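User: Once you have settled down, look closely at the record that follows, taking as long as you need, and be ready to discuss the fold:
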Amino acid sequence: DLRFPSCVEVENLLPDIFLLDNTFATEEITTGNTKHLKIKGNKKAKILEKIFDLSVDDFRNFKPLFEKINNLFGI
């Protein structure tokens, strides 16, 4: 079952090191001192420019999402 807190954006499935090294995200603290990365709004388009530099393994966190889509829609 795929469940994410409301603060998670699909870009957060990319490796943290990729998001932080390219300054696409900042670390924010939510209730209970839980940390998460917040994608900078003005950087979303820039992610697409760099995403092709990633390896197949960098997308492993997307697998549950793709499986859920496949289960829901059969695609």
In short: The first strand starts at residue 25 and ends at 29.
